[in-house]
Amino acid sequence: MGIRSCIGKVRTYLIAWPWRRILPSAAGIMALMILLLFTLGYALAPVYRLKIYRNYSEADSVFISQYDPSYNHPDLEALLKDVAYMKASLKISSLDSIQMIVNLRDSSVLLCLHGVTLHETRVTGLVMDPFLESLPIREYLKIFSEPVRVDLQKATFVKEPIMVRHAPSNPGEALPDAFIPDTLVQRPAFFLLSLQPGIQVIFEQDINRGIRDHLTRLCFRFAIITGQKMGVLADFLCFKRQEYRPRIIIRLPAEDLRAIYRALPSHASVVLAY
Q1: Which residues, 6 or more positions from 24, have their beta carbon under 8 angstroms from its beta carbon?
Q2: Is 18 helix (H, G, I), strand (E, B) or coil?
């Protein structure tokens, strides 16, 4: 009786024990596995991006045949980047529309037409993605030795400001109307250029004076990050490799930033050097 009683007590104890609090359910295990797979794919996204750049350079047999392995020497990196910048600048000078040159090596942003500088401003702040800083010189030369195409332009202000005014009925009405300021240009200035190699370049005004400027900056950043995260999630749900887009943040004076964005054509190209 003693042994049976002991076994009965153990059985009762095991049944009463809150196993559900200790052992996760099958749904919980599945959710954990999905989360781990998503995290792993997101962590490997920069590796896949680097592989894309390597395949892009290796696919060009002419470029590979002309590439000297001695270029990998660290002492030659600055010189090779200067050569790539000059090649890209020479190619962009042949285009018939205004184009942009972003030379982060000397902290300048230029608007050019046929090699003539139309506007130049200095970079007052810069945040560079570590992925781009560690990009191998071979891939750098292949990508940035020529202008890169802008796939998307997005800004917090209108590209072509339009003011609607009623025709004055007499000279007395025309005089005060001539001095009405253009309030469109006073909006906070932030814009995004999405470049063909999968690089996002964000231009921000260097001074945020009020709460409106800070809120606009926060909403603009949130929209970019949200769009990128939704794209990553869509790739994961469709069993695709999650895409990584390296990002550069450049801060400029607000007036220069507006002028640059409004001068860019719809199908713009950019020379990028860093």
Answers
A1: 32
A2: coil
Give the other-Cβ count within 10 Å of 103's Cβ: 17
pLDDT digits (tens, 9 = 90+) for 217-229: 999 999 998 888 7
Given CA atoms 122, 128, 134, 138 in this order, what sign does their dihedral have? negative
Q: Which residues pair with 242 in a beta bridge?
A: none
- Helical residues (DSSP H) of the chain, grouped into ranges: 2-16, 19-22, 26-58, 61-66, 77-92, 130-133, 137-144, 171-177, 211-237, 254-263
Q: State phi, psi for 122 to the nearest 5 degrees.
A: -100, 145
Residue 179 contacts residue 254 (beta carbons within 8 Å): no
What residues does 200 pair with on adjacent strands?
194, 247
Q: How far is CA 112 from CA 100, 135, 199, 219, in A?
A: 6, 27, 21, 31
- pLDDT tens for residues 167-211? 666 665 555 555 555 555 468 999 999 998 899 999 999 888 889
Neighbour order of strands in the sheet with 125-128:
116-122, 108-113, 99-103, 269-273, 148-155, 190-195, 199-205, 247-252, 125-128
Find the length of the chain. Answer: 274
Q: What are the tokens at 18?
A: 């809150």
Which amino acid is located at 13 in the chain? Answer: Y
pTM of the model: 0.78
